[in-house]
Amino acid sequence: MTIDPVARDTASADFFDGTRGGLFLLRRRRSTGEYLDPRSLPLPGDEADWEYVAARGGGRVVSWATVHSRKEDRPEAVRTVVGIVELDEGPWWWCRLDDVDPDADLADLRVQVEVVPSGPAPEDEMVPVFRPARLEHAESRSAR
Fold it and tell me: Which of 24, 60, 77, 97 has the highest Cβ tally under 10 A?
């Protein structure tokens, strides 16, 4: 299943530099260690207190929906599961959920990020999607 191709702009360049390297980056305040909502922007003069850090990549599904669409080359509907994941670091991330049953109850499902191409062209950005966490990974998280 593909995502519509994504292109960077100046505000998203650092994030997409990370995904090109296989990293899912989050913004964090240096002074407090607080992880920030991905849409957060620093106030003028506050930029030096913000940094990008690699996320651990895990989380749990908070909410989800199944989107039905049609592609020109396919007569049947395509079902894409999208959702909100509460990251282990705290912020909520809106994303596509792959390898899940569109009819299943996904509440509190442990998931893990994977960075995938957003389209077929080399210039299409890499984007984070989430898949069910492997059992051994989920168990090691719950033991902490």
Answer: 97
Domain that holds residue 106: 13-142
Is 6 contained in some domain? Answer: no
Within 18-122, strands assigned E span 25-29, 50-54, 58-71, 74-87, 92-97, 110-117
**What six digits make up the tokens of 126?**
């890499």
CATH number for position 34:
2.40.50.840
Query: pLDDT digits over 5-43, tens only?
Result: 898 998 889 999 999 999 999 999 999 999 998 778 888
pTM of the model: 0.84
Going from the C-alpha of 3 to that of each of 33, 81, 118, the distances in angstroms are: 32, 12, 5
- Count Cβ atoms below 10 Å from residue 50 Cβ, excluding itself: 16
What's the total number of domains in the chain?
Answer: 1
